[in-house]
Every structure is written in structure tokens, then in C-alpha cells.
Amino acid sequence: MDLEQLVERDLIHEAAPSDAQQSPGCDQGAAGCQLSHRRLQVVATVEEVRLVDEDRLVARHRRSWEKEQTFFEPIHYLALLERKPGGFDYAKPLEQWNLPECFPLLRRRLEAADAQYGTRSFIRVLRLLEKFTLAQLRDVVEYALNRDVIDPDSIRVMLEHRAEQPVEFFSLEGRPVLQLVRVETTDVRAYAALLTEAAS
Predict the structure, then answer these.
(1) Mean of the per-residue pLDDT values of the chain
(2) Which tens digits make up the pLDDT trace of 4-17?
(3) Neighbours of 176 (CB within 10 A)
């Protein structure tokens, strides 16, 4: 079998998450805590390792052939750390995570505003990286800090608003049938009849 055939051939292994974590080149805990105690399918190729839950791809990571290497994806650990925020400063997967300068500032301000739940609120903001890019979140965090709006829900709303695509203008060009349709302007005085019917 030549190298090209080897690259195209997948090694598929049915495994529990604990087995999947031991797979060579696989990120330990990559599937996230929401998939704990579920059977996952590990698809390992020469280049990458994929974890599949039923028909859904839950993780994809580059594969390393070096000895004693572990790769962490910090985002995968945030759901667990949100439940146990006391471990945030000691979590090995986050050790090499270099976030932009605005994030430590946001954390300090959240913790100063609420000593008990500030770290958890910061983790909630970081969990937005599960759906948005780091650049998108950084821009919104900087914007929020400048306006002193630092709660996670407000940051989420600002992020979703920026990510929304505006509705495009519907052109009638090339649609002659639709060009013939005329919609009359609504006369709001017609609704006054409803008020008189409700009163009687």
C-alpha cells in the first residue's frame, strides 16, 4: 500500500470518551463535558483525529506523531470551568492560552464588580468563542469596556447584533409578474372601527 492510499484510508475505532482521550494525537477532553459518558467514534487519519457523536462531528484536531505530546483546545474546557470556576487559574488546558489584553481587564472588572460570581461571568464571556471568532469577541469586549457595559448577556447581545447579516433589498428586476402586484398604503383610520366594536 503506497502513502497516498494510506492517507485516504481511515482508521475507525468505536470508543467511550475515556478511550478517545487516550487516542494518539487526540486532544484530551476535546469532545467537551456535555459528551461525557457517551460512546464516540474516533476517526484517525495520518493528518488528523476526528471525534464523531452519532452523525455529528464534535471535534477535529491535527495529529502529532511526537512522543509525550498533549494538545489542548481551551474552548472545550470552558463549559466545565463555568460550573467549577475555582479551577480556572489552575486549568492546564488554559496555561498557554494567550488572550488579547482586553480580556484580563474585563476579568478584573467583573471580579471587582462581583467577587463571588465575577470569574464565572468572565468564563461565560469566553464561552462565546464556541460560536464566534476571537477577533469578533475581542472587538465587542473592547467596545463594551469603553462603554462600561461588562455583563455577559450584554456582551452576547452586542456580539449577535454585529454578526447579523442585514436583509438584502428584494429586487423586482427580472420578475415581471411581481412587478404588476400593487399593495395599497394602509389607512390607519380603518382600525378605529375596531375600537368602536370593542366598546359595544
Answers:
(1) 81
(2) 444 434 444 444 44
(3) 8
- Whether residue 162 contacts residue 140, with contact meaning beta carbons closer than 8 Å, is answered with yes
pTM of this prediction?
A: 0.63
Domain regions of the chain by residue span: 3-71, 75-163
Distance CA 88, CA 53 (A): 27
- What contacts 11, CB < 8 A, 6 or more positions away? 43, 44, 45
Q: Is residue 100 within 8 Å of residue 138, measured between CB atoms?
A: yes
Cβ distance 148 to 105 under 8 Å?
no
Asked whether 110 and 154 are in contact (CB, 8 A), the reply is no
The stretch 31-47 carries a mean pLDDT of 76
> What nine digits make up the cell of 183?
399593495
Q: What are the Cα distances from residue 7, in Å, to 43, 44, 46, 47, 51?
A: 12, 10, 6, 8, 18
Only one residue has cell 470508543, namely 15
